[in-house]
Amino acid sequence: MQCRIELIFVPVTDVDRAIAFYVDTLGFTLDIQARVDENTRFVQVTPPTSACSIAFGEGITDMTPGTQHSIQAVIPDAAAAHRELLERGVAASDVEKLAWGSFTTFADPDGNTWTLQELPPPGSYEQAAQA
């Protein structure tokens, strides 16, 4: 089976505030914004260089805003990502270095959390696990 994850839903309370955060603050691309009907509004944004987008809006998910705590993205440099988040005014955790990568986290205005992972060099985790 071939499978590509291309869209993850993020529950938010205020769609315009979410657009401002993801597009204006983080620099994601606004792909689609559509009012489907009076109860449904759909927004799709994509992080730079990502093959996977996120969607949020009104009437598109039953998840409670602020409960999406499982978004993880791979980045080339955790320290650089951490600095960029701080420069953009986003509170980010200190970089944590573990055998399986270096990590920094942040939350959107609703409390949905993101983990950014810098992968370790190929083969280094297996070597560390055997030591």
TrEMBL record:
Source domain of life is Bacteria
Tell me, what's a Pfam family for it?
A: Glyoxalase
Looking at the record, the residues that make up the VOC domain are 4-119
Q: Which PROSITE patterns match?
A: VOC
- This one is known as VOC family protein
Species in which this protein is naturally found: Pengzhenrongella sicca
